Recover the amino acids of this structure.
């Protein structure tokens, strides 16, 4: 039998691209975004989508995207942005705590702070 030395036909195999994030992680990300409650945060996330040319639509309920089709690189950017928001919130809490701590130490404000606020300050001192 004669061997066929001709070039074989090139077959295209379409594989589903492996994603870095599982579906449950993406659902958690969407839930985190929904819980932000600040339009400025939402606008910044939409800007990240626009920068990466992600297709989206919008209606009276807000922006609609298929999170499964968003590339991992864009998801990484969104997660980084959400992390920066969380850090800002924590810094704000620390600053407020320090402010109350200073107020408690200053006698002229000690009557203006509730017992709850005093207990929060005491707990923050224990952490230090």
């Amino acid at each position: 039998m004669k061997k066929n030395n001709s070039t074989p036909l090139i077959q295209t195999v379409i594989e589903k691209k492996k994603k870095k994030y599982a579906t449950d992680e993406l659902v958690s990300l969407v839930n985190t975004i929904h819980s932000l409650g600040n339009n400025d945060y939402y606008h910044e996330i939409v800007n990240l989508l626009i920068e990466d040319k992600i297709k989206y639509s919008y209606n009276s309920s807000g922006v609609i995207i298929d999170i499964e089709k968003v590339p991992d690189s864009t998801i990484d950017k969104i997660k980084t942005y959400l992390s920066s928001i969380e850090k800002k919130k924590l810094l704000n809490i620390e600053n407020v705590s320090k402010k109350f701590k200073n107020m408690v130490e200053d006698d002229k404000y000690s009557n203006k702070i509730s017992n709850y606020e005093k207990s929060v300050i005491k707990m923050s001192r224990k952490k230090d």
Observations:
- The radius of gyration is 26 Å.
- Residues 7-16 have pLDDT under 50 and may be disordered.
